[in-house]
Amino acid sequence: MAAPVLQAEIDINAPVSKVWEVISDLRRMPEWSPQCRRMIVLGGAPRVGSRTINFNRRGFQFWPTTSRITEFVPEKKLAFRVNENGTVWSYELEPTDTGTRLVETRHAQNGVKPISTKLTNAFMGGVESFERELVDGMNQTLARIKAVAER
Question: Which CDD domains does the UniProt record give (predicted)?
C-alpha cells in the first residue's frame, strides 16, 4: 500500500539558477533540513546514479541512511531514493513571474518498507505523527533555502 505523498512548496524571489545553485550543493543539506546532520556525495559532483551517505538526528535519536540520486536535471529537478525505506525525496523548481516556486516532495509509491514502519512506530511516535513532523520539517527546509537564495 502506498504511503501518502508529503509535500511543501514556497515561492522564492530569486531566479531558478540561484535556487538550483543552493539546493544542488548537497553538502549544505544540514543547513536546510532539521533532521539531516550530514550528507556526503560519493564519487565527486552529484549526478544521476551518485550515492550518498546521510547522517540524521531527531532529539537524542541518531541514524545513518544511504541514498542514490535518481534525477538530476539542472535548474529543474533533483531527486534521491533512500535505500533503507524506499522513499523518494525530490525538489522541483518552476520559474514564476517573481522568481522560483520550489516544491519538496516525499513519495513512497510502493509504500514504506515494513522494517521502517515498525521502527517509526516503536521509536518515533508512530507513522502519522512522524509524517506530520516531516511536513513541518519540509516547510522549515524550504524557508531556510528561501532565506539564503534571496540574500
Answer: SRPBCC (cd07812)
